[in-house]
Amino acid sequence: xxxxxxxxxxxxxxxxxxxxxxxxxxxxxxxxxxxxxxxxxxxxxxxxxxxxxxxxxxxxxxxxxxxxxxxxxxxxxxxxxxxxxxxxxxxxxxxxxxxxxxxxxxxxxxxxxx
Amino acid sequence: xxxxxxxxxxxxxxxxxxxxxxxxxxxxxxxxxxxxxxxxxxxxxxxxxxxxxxxxxxxxxxxxxxxxxxxxxxxxxxxxxxxxxxxxxxxxxxxxxxxxxxxxxxxxxx
Lengths: 114, 110
Known about the structure:
A: 62% strand; B: five-stranded antiparallel β-sheet
């Protein structure tokens, strides 16, 4: 099983709303990531969790708040977003084992901020 | 700072017309070079990780190769379903982040 799941698939929210994106993997990966992707651009790293601890925050505005409740789950809490935050939000997980490293992405959540 | 440059930006092929995509990189120490395929509106699909110069990996009509400065993704006898954006990314030995190139948008016409 090489699946990373994300919910919801689509989300429309107003600038005053609070919402959360969810990500789950059951591959035993100990590193999990949030990326933001705009149309026709590559994914941009937002946060990295390693062994359930935040290890990288790419200077992301505080209106994005990540959370890693356990080794299989990753959340991204959204509050007071701006229209320019509309994008595809991707979750990923990775593991290095036996000299081989893989990083799998989920299908993404398409977010529209009105 | 790690840099990844992909070329061409866009490539149109006829079905069956083989070609190659290029990924040039600059990194202080390479931990791995990753290739992904991405369809519109979907998450990137993992294809390969390459680790050292001279390494090659194959999957169906795709073959990835690696040198000390670049990687090639060779597509043999492509089919329309191979149409997608192909992304290359590097991870350096001391880091945990992927640095992506801008991608190559491949279109295969029937």
